[in-house]
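Ticket reopened. Same input as before:
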Amino acid sequence: MNNIIKLTIDGKSIQAKEGQNLVDVAKENKIHIPTLCYFKELNPLGTCRICTVKLNGKHTTGCTVKVSEGMNIEVNTPELLDNRKAIIEMLYAEGNHFCPTCEKSGNCDMQNHAYEMGLTVTRYPHVFSDKMVDFTPNRMIMESNRCILCKRCVEEVKSPDGKNVFSFVQRGVKTRVHIDYAQEAKLSEEEALHAMNICPVGAILIKGIAHEQPFGHRKYDFLGKDVIPSLKNGKAKKEDHEKFIVATTSLAGCFGCHMSLLDIDTDLLDMLEIVEFNKSPLTDIKKFSKRCHVGLIEGGCANAENVHVLREFRKKCDILIGFGECAIMGGIPAMRNFVPLQECLEESYLNGVTSEIGADIIPAHEDIPKLLNNVYPCNEVVKIDYYIPGCPPNAEHIWKVVKSILLGKEFSITHDEFKYD
Amino acid sequence: MSQKLVIDPVTRVEGHGKVTVHLDENNKVTDAKFHIVEFRGFERFIQGHPYWEAPVMVQRLCGICPVSHHLAAAKAIDQIVGIEPEDLSLPAQKIRKLLHFGQVFQSHALHFFYLASPDLLFGAESDPLKRNVVGVAMEYPELAKKGILMRKFGQEIIKLVAGKRIHGISTTPGGVHRRISAKERAYFLDDQEIPSIDTMIKWSVEIIEFMKTYHITNKKFLDSFAKYPSGHLGLVNKKNGFLELYDGVLRATDSKGNITLDDVSNDDYNQYFYEAVEKWSYLKFPYLKHLGKEKGWNRVGPLARINICDGIETPLAEQERLDFKAITNGNINNMTMYTHWARLIEVLYCAEMMKKLLEDDDILSNDLTRKGKRRNEGIGIIEAPRGTLIHHYEVDDKDRITRCNLIVSTTHNNEPMNQAVRWVANNVLDGQAKITEGMMNQVEVAIRAYDPCLSCATHAMGQMPLELQLFDHYGNVIDKKIKH
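Engineering reply: fixed in the latest deploy. New output:
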């Protein structure tokens, strides 16, 4: 087993011990293969597939490959980089990963991979699934909507009797991780905490532990790489004496993104030297009075009016930028997608603590817009050209993107600026 | 021929607001309504989430005053872990208050400089192209810069305590998650990188002086515009009845100053309030049960707070309060436009309080959290920049939220804003053959005085874009004015 063999990774000739794990061999040679389910001394699981590589021209999971003589491995080709990003995007679209309110945000392995890959949006429509959230144990919560079925907890966490605490139940798309309540109760505090920590997302929670680490003190706050987005368009065209024209709007958002626009403080005065606002809450311009170079969209679509405004922006702006979690993922307003709209309305207007006795009115009138059954991210309604993630996005990030797009300059976003929060 | 005037949207924030005015064949106003056209459903979809997520989730109601929601929810969650406001450690109380004063300071500065000042500096009838924050920056660069730096100061305080300027996190159940370091605090005191807290106090006094000068020349307008009698509601200090923003008891008076809610404990709020629902607005209409829907509605926010409190604990703001009360001979002020002035007195109060807290060594302490006996219900009430904000949660034994009730500040102001719109309709639009841009702007001016959170955004960004359409009774557009 300890024979020294030769293989190539991305064209580089490498020596390794026969049977060694490919991910470890690559790491020793400073080639990074991202992993999620592969965890320390656990037997490789190959469940998450973000370590996908090509072995002699065929796709396979890197963490399950034991190296042998003559292997030809591809890791960092454009195609494979995109494959891996697509897998992370799929996980984001399939589960309910609302980073801004998640207990694990900043300490989440999956979020960190997304940062490293510069993921700003998913190419797949969001499923907004409504899976079981199990509050039964006294100490633990299993949030299946966030679980990516990596199996780490199933393999790693055992009760003092050596029995499984977590196991897969049901099959196919219904598969979920179930907690064995009796075994869970036998875990020490430390072991329970370990279960929460090895979960690469926010599926396993210890009750009462939430948001205790301030921003800047979380595990991945400073570990990531800077992101260099690709610019699709050249410089915005205008006459020298003219200013760049920008329009903005807030759909189903909280206006926090617009507030962040103002958070460059006095630099805003400099920005006004080169930028002119057209239709925007910043001005009195209600209807587009001219074509705009850039349109900034905050918020997703929750009612018919939002859809109408978004389509109008698409028609009147050369480049549309979705900024903030809500425009890109639906955000907090999209949490109502798991509940029938009628139930939301009844809870607010009929069954509230301070509802009038015998209340029977739910608002519905020609002068208020019709609500959509679901809240939709903007890119599921019109084509969006750029995305600025965050809740809200960092002010420097927003203006860096806008300015670089207008001037046609390359730019990079520092890890500090690039956050889902 | 009867007509319907439509102003849509009044604002592009937190959903849109919209005004409709109905006229009869003689152009007499028969009805005027202010519609809030957005619905979120937080009360339902938060159910099933663990209770400690509430302060982080619910602050996303609003990007202008997220801190208020964060703190109101945190106070409710404190009760769930058995902690009353006075049980919090002193450092945690002070750090939370510092956060809250930073928030009110930035929000008020934003409203005054970015929204209200264009109307005051240029006049309500001036060129609408110039009448916005960009216009102020061009013509009054020094004033604009001070406004930006005051907002920045408040935002930086928020970032200090909560880690981010918008949607930061500070609270944990029963406390806060970090202390302030001496070095961090020096940033606000030493006048090096940013203007110091002393400069903030100085500028706050200056802007009140500006308001007083404005008052001398525009008294008639301020006294009469959108004036109507109303109740006034807010928190006051439990012990002495003074102005209180973080924690107190509920007090309300009628338009003449008679007490209608007598320093009621937060925990009893639901015995006193009902919320009515109308078909034509997604925003509810709260009122005091014992007075009924017609008489029980109240204004909330700066004017109400200055009206109902017995004093202010900081010396400069207290002197300003006395000057303000002298205008109405100590009586309740029901003049809508004086809300701007009251707001500036609170700006000064917040600046003085921030200084006091920044200089207090308790904020450097590590004694940050407390735990008590677990309960299944929590109520948190706070004075947000725009008024009384109520959060109420019920949780089951497994820590799951089972019920939630939120009465946000602007909800209390729903009827007052409708009254203000009706005032403009009856006094400005009534009997007019043609609608001018100036008339439209007056509708905005009336609504804007409330700094409504539905226009949380708009009030922040400047003028509200307005479109006014004139319909015949078949719904055909016969006239249209767009302000731009």
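Chain A has twelve helices and 17 strands. The longest strand of chain A covers residues 244-250. Please confirm and we'll close it.
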